[in-house]
Specification:
This protein is mostly helical. The protein contains five helices and no strands.
Length: 93
Amino acid sequence: MHELTCAYLRECLAVSRGQGVALDKDTPDTVLARFQVFPADMGNSILTDREAGRPLEWDIRNGVISRIGRRHGIATPISDTITMLLATSDGPG
């Protein structure tokens, strides 16, 4: 899971740089280190929405990475997969 998370964060870093955002190459490691100190049972906003039966915010959180990546010719296979999985499971259930 660690390697998959790092690969996903590197995709996000590449897309951010494609947009002109100046992020340090160590940003993925910094983000992951922050996540690792959270309690193991802590969820995120997508989980909260799912549990409350609200529409998921996958597009603004994940779909945008795929779209911007395509615009800049940056491959985003992990983002594409996450987006597809979330989009096909959108809504309560």
